[in-house]
Design goal:
Blueprint: E1 2-5, H1 14-26, E2 31-36, E3 49-54, H2 60-68, E4 72-76, H3 80-91, E5 98-103, H4 110-123, E6 128-136, H5 142-145, H6 147-150, E7 168-173, H7 176-183, H8 189-195, H9 197-201, H10 203-217, H11 221-252
Parallel strand pairs: 1-4, 1-5, 2-3, 2-4, 5-6, 6-7
Helix pairs in contact: 1-11, 3-4, 8-11, 10-11
Length: about 260
């Protein structure tokens, strides 16, 4: 399966979706992420994802790897990067199963969304395109947050959502937990979920183990308490990540 995350505008969260969100929706043990971007490079540690970074001048180097890989996420940079990536994939007859076009709360991104979807349709007529409303603050106020897409009678803004030729709209929340995974643990959510699955599934066993460890490592009561609190905080993070994963899987519903 090949998934392409693209938008001709930079700064809309393509890498966030490619590295943190889409792997949760796919829930696989072995994923290739191809970062084709002249400006940005991911520096996350992962036992599940193989990160491969190339600039657009070396795009031909990844085409064979995409052909032979079982599960590939292609993270195309903004501007001409997206155009060159889509053209190269099409010219080399590489099938793309799903396209993901991110959108953020920014009126200026309307033209880029339209241009990206049109570009995809020009090259892959029957493609399945997700329009992803990225880092949503409040899902119950989604239409207010993205009024440039849905319109607003209050401000007499005409929406364009019906003009966009996307197959499905998915809203992805601005998850604090994933920011913690990325910036503190320096890894991906799918890595932490898989490595922490045994803790979630056998919580009572680990709870007793953490108490015993705290008493063995420290004599001071506060130090014991702090150690145990840290372990419990990690458990709560894992539990929340499992909930996020199920939400993401259901939202995208990859076949």
């Amino acid at each position: 399966m090949n998934v392409l995350v693209s938008n001709t505008k930079g700064g809309v969260g393509k890498s966030f979706l490619a590295t943190q969100i889409v792997p949760l929706a796919l829930e696989a043990d072995n994923i290739n992420i191809f970062e084709i971007d002249d400006n940005n490079k991911t520096s996350l540690q992962s036992n599940i994802i193989q990160f491969k970074h190339l600039d657009t001048h070396n795009i031909d180097e990844i085409l064979f790897e995409v052909e032979i890989g079982d599960l590939n996420i292609i993270d195309a940079g903004g501007g001409n990067d997206t155009k060159e990536v889509i053209k190269a994939l099409k010219d080399n007859n590489i099938n793309v199963d799903y396209f993901i076009v991110p959108a953020v709360k920014d009126f200026e991104v309307i033209k880029n969304i339209k241009d990206t979807i049109d570009l995809i349709r020009e090259n892959y007529t029957d493609s399945f395109i997700y329009l992803v409303l990225n880092k949503v603050k409040e899902k119950d106020k989604l239409k207010d947050e993205f009024m440039y897409l849905f319109g607003s009678s209050e401000y007499e803004i005409e929406g364009v959502i019906n003009e966009l030729n996307a197959n499905k709209i998915v809203a992805v929340s601005d998850y604090n937990e994933i920011d913690i995974v990325k910036n503190i643990y320096k890894t991906t959510a799918i890595d932490l979920i898989q490595s922490g699955a045994d803790i979630v599934n056998n919580f009572e066993k680990y709870k007793k183990q953490w108490i015993a460890e705290a008493m063995e490592k420290f004599e001071d009561k506060k130090a014991q308490s702090d150690y145990y609190k840290k372990k419990m905080a990690f458990y709560r993070l894992l539990k929340k990540l499992f909930t996020i994963k199920e939400s993401i899987k259901n939202a995208f519903d990859f076949k």
